[in-house]
């Protein structure tokens, strides 16, 4: 704000910060400059310690502009919670705010609002022993329709009509005899198994290639993706032919020398990252590991010189292979981890050969 002026006269009344004395009623208008004020945005996760941002959230906004607040896609939220939105700190009504509009001003602190999911109980079917067998009542001979057993005498004057000669007799002895045929039933017929994949079969969904690890457990590993992908989001599960598989691993050299890759976000069911899985990705700057990762194999992220931020979402990481993060990484690397695990993970990364300066957040 540069000052105040009177609209009728279109003349300056006073400058910003200048003291004035008003002797009569008048309408004053603010004078704004093109240098718009910038304000900071702070995100408060409250008691949700296991919620982690998968990417850098918008840190500030400018008066008069519009900024969208983070959505569920930008956060790693446990399954037991459902994302609702954000509300401004101090607002007891918890009014949901999804964007900052032009009329807002001042530094803002937004609190995360999650809601616990309601899990419906799974109905239990009765076992075969609990199902009552149908009872069959004996037939009363007195109610049968057989004329031979009826007490009413037959009229001897009424005789049965003779059968025409042109009607064939379809008795069992006159039917043509056919050789016995053995009918082999398809074991997959009538079940959904025919829609699934066999072990080690590969398939592609949304430009990402998977290989089946176990048909019984319905698990797959990621083996690669289209070279044009720059932002890779490995899902928690993938569905093919109405069969849902959990993605539990990233195979060795799955994204070796994937030169267009800039950002990697790994799903929550992945437990292991294979040897040289993301090695020599010259443009890779950001990597987020799912909360189930327990092992990062040898040279998994080797040779990624531009890697600047690593997010470790879980508490289960135990093994980091030799040279998993090394060779040419310049400057500082930001490692974001859950509370209570920062020091442990830094030691693992140092032991594995990370030579860059680590800043824990």
- The SSE string, one letter per element, is EEEEEEEEEEEEEEEEEEEEEEEEHE
Count the strands?
25
Low-confidence stretches: 182-195
Counted by DSSP, the helix tally is: 1
Characterize the overall form. Answer: globular
Distance between the termini: 36 Å
Share of residues in strands = 25-35%
Q: Short summary of the structure?
A:
Helices cover 3% and strands 30% of the residues. It is built from one helix and 25 strands. Strands 12, 13, 14, 16, 17, 19, 21 and 23 form an eight-stranded mixed beta sheet that branches.
Characterization of the model:
The chain has 361 residues and is mainly beta. It is 3% helix and 30% strand. It has one helix and 25 strands. Strands 12, 13, 14, 16, 17, 19, 21 and 23 form an eight-stranded mixed β-sheet that branches. Strands 15-18-20-22-24-25 form a six-stranded parallel β-sheet, covered by helices on one side. It has a four-stranded mixed β-sheet with strand order 6-4-11-9, with no helix packed on it. Strand 24 (332-337), helix 1 and strand 25 (357-360) form a beta-alpha-beta unit. The longest helix is centred in the C-terminal third of the chain and has 11 residues, at 342-352. The chain is globular. The two termini are 36 Å apart. The model is unreliable at 182-195 (pLDDT under 50).
């Amino acid at each position: 704000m540069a000052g105040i002026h009177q609209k009728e006269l279109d003349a300056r009344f006073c400058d910003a910060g200048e003291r004035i004395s008003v002797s009569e009623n008048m309408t004053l208008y603010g004078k704004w400059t093109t240098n718009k004020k910038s304000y900071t945005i702070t995100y408060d996760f409250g008691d949700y310690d296991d919620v982690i941002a998968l990417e850098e959230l918008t840190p500030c906004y400018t008066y008069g502009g519009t900024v969208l607040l983070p959505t569920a896609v930008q956060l790693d939220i446990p399954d037991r919670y459902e994302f609702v939105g954000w509300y401004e700190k101090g607002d007891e009504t918890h009014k949901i705010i999804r964007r900052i509009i032009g009329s807002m001003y001042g530094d803002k602190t937004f609190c995360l609002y999650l809601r616990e999911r309601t899990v419906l109980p799974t109905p239990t079917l009765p076992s075969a022993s609990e199902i009552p067998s149908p009872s069959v009542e004996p037939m009363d001979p007195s109610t049968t329709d057989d004329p031979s057993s009826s007490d009413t005498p037959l009229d001897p004057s009424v005789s049965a009509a003779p059968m025409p000669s042109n009607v064939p007799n379809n008795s069992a002895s006159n039917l043509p005899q056919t050789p016995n045929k053995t009918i082999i039933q398809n074991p997959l017929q009538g079940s959904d198994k025919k829609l699934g994949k066999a072990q080690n079969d590969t398939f592609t969904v949304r430009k990402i290639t998977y290989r089946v690890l176990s048909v019984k457990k319905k698990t797959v590993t990621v083996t690669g993706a289209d070279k044009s992908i720059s932002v890779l989001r490995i899902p928690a599960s993938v569905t093919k032919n109405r069969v849902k598989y959990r993605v539990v691993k990233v195979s060795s050299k799955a994204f070796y020398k994937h030169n267009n890759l800039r950002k990697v976000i790994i799903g929550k069911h992945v437990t292991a990252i294979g040897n040289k899985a993301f090695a020599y990705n010259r443009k890779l700057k950001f990597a987020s590991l799912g909360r189930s990762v327990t092992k990062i194999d040898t040279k998994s992220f080797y040779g990624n010189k531009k890697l600047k931020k690593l997010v470790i979402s879980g508490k289960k990481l135990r093994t980091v292979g030799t040279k998993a993060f090394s060779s040419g990484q310049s400057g500082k690397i930001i490692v974001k981890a859950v509370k209570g695990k920062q020091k442990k993970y830094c030691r693992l990364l140092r032991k594995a050969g990370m030579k860059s300066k680590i800043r824990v957040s």
